[in-house]
Amino acid sequence: MSLTGLFLIIFLVGHVTGNLQLFINDDGQAFNIYAKFMTTNPAVKILSYVTYIAIIGHVVYSIITTLANKKARPIGYQTSRASTNSAWTSRNMGVLGTIVLIFLVVHLQGFWYEMHWGNLPVVQYDGEEYKDLYSIVKFAFAEPLLVLLYVVAMVFLGLHLSHGFASAFQTLGLNHKKYTPAIVFLGRVFSVVVPALFASMPIYLYISSLN
């Protein structure tokens, strides 16, 4: 779980960086060129398959870990002080992860599937054809309920990352009294900045659609 989690954290950095093309005011040209590169470049395709495997592996291992924990202690403690002994996020990682997974399925169906197999309009830049994924994204985020869904989902992603980031390093035994505080701090910053950037994209496109 730690290895797949850390890989997916790296993926999030790349994904949010690429999607920043949505903020460029060029009628989607930069984003469409980026989208085509991400779906046609052989190296990126291989990396995509690794990402799919990492997502599946992360989910499978989380289920295995949860079942193993329940099997190890089929009867709960008579007196529990979980709220004082652990953070809320650490006790609810399964719930947070499930919500993020549901969102991911919705996200993939709405954009990833459409990019690969949907009937997207086509635009031309310098005589070369590109699928106009930008128009689909822009149309989708003109709907306030969908924007709200994405923003709420990013809140849950942030909560999941706030514990998962540092926990991954701890599980791998990368603890050190000198470096662990820095890792925890970096995890907290990451869990705010990256989801906030993702959430800002639908908000920006929605505001743009009002003009």
Automatic annotation (TrEMBL):
Keywords: Membrane, Transmembrane, Transmembrane helix. The keyword Zinc does not apply. InterPro entries: Cytochrome_b-558, SQR/QFR_C/D. The keyword Transmembrane applies. GO terms for cellular component: membrane. The chain crosses the membrane at residues 46-68, 93-113, 133-161, 182-207. This is Succinate dehydrogenase. It comes from Rhodonellum psychrophilum GCM71 = DSM 17998.
